[in-house]
Design a protein that fits this description.
Layout lengths: L1 H6 L13 E9 L7 E7 L10 E2 L2 E3 L6 H13 L6 E6 L3 E3 L4 E10 L12 E8 H4 L5 E6 L3 E7 L5 E2 L1 H14 L34
Parallel strand pairs: 1-7
Antiparallel strand pairs: 1-2, 1-4, 2-3, 2-8, 5-7, 6-7, 9-10, 10-11
Length: about 210
């Protein structure tokens, strides 16, 4: 996997001068059975930015920080990660996130000494540990049409958890690094019959008219 990460050109997209930089930590752990787990968070539903969505721990890169330092700091703040337990492997390609106007740098790290994580109550509703084998399960595959990226991967995880958007884009790139044939040749457009529109909120039921 490290060789695959090295083969990627993480800075193939030139970030314009003055661009807003963000870092995300893609934290991988080994449960010991040949699989890998990815740590995600589910954001609080009352947040102004990306409410209720599944994301990686991450946020703005502060002045004087490297992207790697920012990713580890944000993970420490959001889920209580001990930075010394994460060994950085490399970066995935940078991508632009139009809704927040940030240039996102995904940083991949191996979790060498897993420990309990605690969600920061102000930002995170839940910490999720998702296995690579679950993401490869065809029954969980869906697609979302984003205006800037066309058809993109999406996953319906256990319960009501929906993985989509920028987090899904990064996840698909990661899966391609780990196993270039992870989808068996399928592409998001092939799943048009399983399209989801996460931004469509069902209308609230109207209150019943008062009794005469």
């Amino acid at each position: 996997m490290q060789a695959g990460l090295a083969a990627l050109a993480p800075d193939r997209v030139a970030v314009p001068a003055g661009g807003r930089l963000a870092a995300a930590l893609v934290l991988l752990s080994d449960p010991g059975d040949g699989d890998l787990e990815i740590v995600y968070t589910r954001r609080r539903a009352d947040l102004r930015s990306h409410p209720g969505q599944i994301s990686f721990p991450g946020g703005r890169v502060d002045p004087g920080e490297t992207v790697e330092q920012a990713a580890l700091r944000e993970a420490a703040e959001e889920v209580g990660l001990r930075p010394a337990t994460a060994a950085v492997l490399g970066r995935l390609p940078v991508g632009y996130i139009p809704p927040s106007r940030f240039w996102l740098h995904p940083v991949v790290a191996r979790w060498t000494a897993p420990h309990g994580l605690v969600a920061a109550e102000t930002e995170v509703a839940e910490v999720l540990h998702v296995r690579i084998s679950a993401l490869r399960r065809r029954a969980s595959w869906h697609t979302v049409r984003l205006s800037t990226a066309g058809w993109t991967w999406a996953w319906r995880l256990d319960g009501d958890h929906l993985l989509w958007g920028a987090t899904a884009l990064v996840t698909a790139v990661l899966l391609g690094v780990i196993d270039p044939d992870w989808s068996g040749g399928a592409v998001p457009r092939d799943l048009a019959h399983r399209e989801l529109r996460p931004w469509d909120v069902p209308p609230r039921p109207r209150p019943a008219p008062p009794a005469p």
